[in-house]
Amino acid sequence: MTKDHQLSASGLALGYGDAPVIRDLDLELAPGEITVIVGSNGCGKSTLLKSMARLLAPLRGSVVLDGREIHRMPTKEVARVMGLLAQSPIAPEGIVVSDLVGRGRYPHQGVFARWSSEDERAVAEALAVTNTLELAERPVDELSGGQRQRVWIAMVLAQQSELLLLDEPTTFLDVTHQVEVLDLLTDLNRSRGTTIAMVLHDLNLAARYADRLVAVHGGTVHAQGASEDVLTEETVEEVFGLRSRVVPDPVSGRPLVLPLGRHHSGPPEPLSRPAPPSRCRSSGSHPSR
Amino acid sequence: MRRIAEAGSAGAGNTEAASGAATAVVPADIAAGRRRRRRRHLTVCAALSLLVLAAFAVSLMFGQAVYGPLEVVRVLAGEEVPGASFTVGVLRLPRALVGLLAGAAFGMAGITFQTMLRNPLASPDIIGISSGASAAAVFSIVMLSLSGTAVSIIATVAALATAGLIYLLSFRGGLSGTRLILIGIGISAMLHSLVSYVLARAAQWDLQTAMRWLNGNLSNASMEQAAPLALAVAVCAVGLVSLSGNLDTLRLGEETAAALGVRVERTRLLLIFLAVVLLAFATAAAGPISFVAFLAGPISVRLLGRAASAGSPLIPAALVGALLVLAADFIGQFAFGTRYPVGVVTGVLGAPYLIFLLIRQTRTGGAL
Fold first, then answer.
1. Candidates A99, A162, A182, A189, partner chain B, best to mutate (most B CBs within 10 A)
2. Fewest CB within 10 A of the end CB: N or C in chain B?
């Protein structure tokens, strides 16, 4: 499988109006790896992903795909190389799963679209990989949240792009389906070399599934690298304003972030005594993720 | 038949659950399902075409005097048939043609707006674009003493301007269906009051002509009206069909569509432009036949059923629109003691559906 598609951002400034959310950000996606972007609410991580996917023109700087500025490239040509799973895509009323997945073939079709056997093959393969063949004839409205998310991933896979961007693909899913979706994406990365970049909220899942972790804070990349190097107690405090203990995850060996709140964060106290303020106070003004 | 999807081999660890299941689906089943839905789509289109053809034939044959199919065909072929040449050729043919074309135009304009804005209430006759055409026409008839083609042109321009105004007022960093509908309804109310004001000052003589622009009426239909309408329908239909892939993709949400390579803003403006031109030309020829744009889309989607998932509802909606207008005009002419304009009949059909939709949407979503 090819691993040679290069996507990078340099000197990027993004935002709406005069207030940039992202200021002077450089980021290069490592081909063939899973990059996970984390950061507190409103830090601009989704905005960054949208701009990398050419949906948002930068105020300054550029996003470059294979040596060409992405916002100047024919958009269908980009779509054959790069897919995006948006945060809340809409399933048209009554649409059947295999037809929804078929929509992913749009960038490969002409104006008066003729459905080819290659389209059919791509859809069948996408359904098989995401374990949704059984659902192919069901209306999307009838599916559970986890099934629906797998179908949307199948839609993006039918696009047959070697770069895949996902904006919070695990939101609204219970923990079982979160792990299922992340396992599926890892399968894709391992078996086909698909380069994946995604925004995740859950730090511990991010640490576990990322080959490279990117922490966005203050409008730029605050830290990036292997999970072990990025997820330290210091970085978590700087990026999220959250005091935490970071220990090795007994399952994966990756870092596990244990947040320190005002309650339940010390050794067991006798019920009647108030907790000593010195040890458990948080700075209060920071969002606790 | 292989029970395990051959294409699934790349799927690594997570396919064992699927391949073990007793009801395994293979890629051939998926292709067959898609073909089945495509066939149903074609069948619905063919059946609707036959119905439209039948309604067209009935409107040519029946009336105060009844002519057989043979006589009608001879008239259409250009032969001189005593009696029939006038009744069928001059009176009935333009009426049926304008009805058919206007219905198709309303149907396509309606389904385009409804699909693009993901809301059955977003039909151009509900959100005031037809009112723009009507108000401009009434104004130019009564106040400017214009007639004929000049009125049609002004109506078309006014419809485009109204659509542009609604678009501008409701666009704020993105297009929201609900905001557009509410602003459209507001503008529609304003235009209606303008029409009432103009009509209150109208001479008895102008009132007759002006009323046609408020009701929708085919009784003055002529070949001169049918020709430009036919041209508009042909051009816009080709345009809309070529954009139907974009529109289908746009329904997945703006971001997803843009990521798949749709130029969202351009597609939307083109769709609006084509739909408004259709609407304006049809309104210029037949008046704003009420609720046809609003009803044709939902009826066609209902008829398509599962097949709506695999194909565009554009052509079925055009056929349903044509059928609605032809049938309603026939009913209005002959079902009652007095003759009613076509718009009155479609209004009676459409109003209950509008109320039903409003009740259902406030029950399910709260918002529109």
1. A99
2. N
Q: What is the pTM of this model?
A: 0.86
Reported as a single tens digit per residue, the pLDDT across B50-101 is 999 999 999 999 988 889 888 899 988 888 888 888 888 888 999 999 999 9
The H or E element that residue B344 is part of is helix B342-364
Nearest CB partner across the interface for B261, out of A78, A180, A191: A78
Per-residue 3-state assignment (H helix, E strand, C coil) for chain A: CCCCCCEEEEEEEEEECCEEEEEEEEEECCCCCEEEEECCCCCCHHHHHHHHCCCCCCCEEEEEECCEEHHHCCHHHHHHHEEEECCCCCCCCCCEHHHHHHHHHHHHCCCCCCCCHHHHHHHHHHHHHCCCHHHCCCEHHHCCHHHHHHHHHHHHHHCCCCEEEEECCCCCCCHHHHHHHHHHHHHHHHHHCCEEEEECCCHHHHHHHCCEEEEEECCEEEEEECHHHHCCHHHHHHHHCCCEEEEECCCCCCEEEEECCCCCCCCCCCCCCCCCHHHHCCCCCCCCC
Instruction: Sort strands A60-65 and A68-69 into parallel, antiparallel or unpaired.
Output: antiparallel
Please give the domain boundaries of chain B with CATH numbers for all domains: 36-363 (1.10.3470.10)
Better-scored residue on pLDDT, B205 or A213 = A213
Contact assignment for B259 to A83 by CB distance below 8 Å? yes
Q: Which residue of A has its CA nearest to B301?
A: A94
ipTM of this model? Answer: 0.87
For residue A105, list chain B residues with Cβ-Cβ distance below 8 A: none
Vertex A268 angle, CA A264 and A272, to 5°: 90
Name chain A contacts of B25, Cβ cutoff 8 Å. 133-134, 136-137
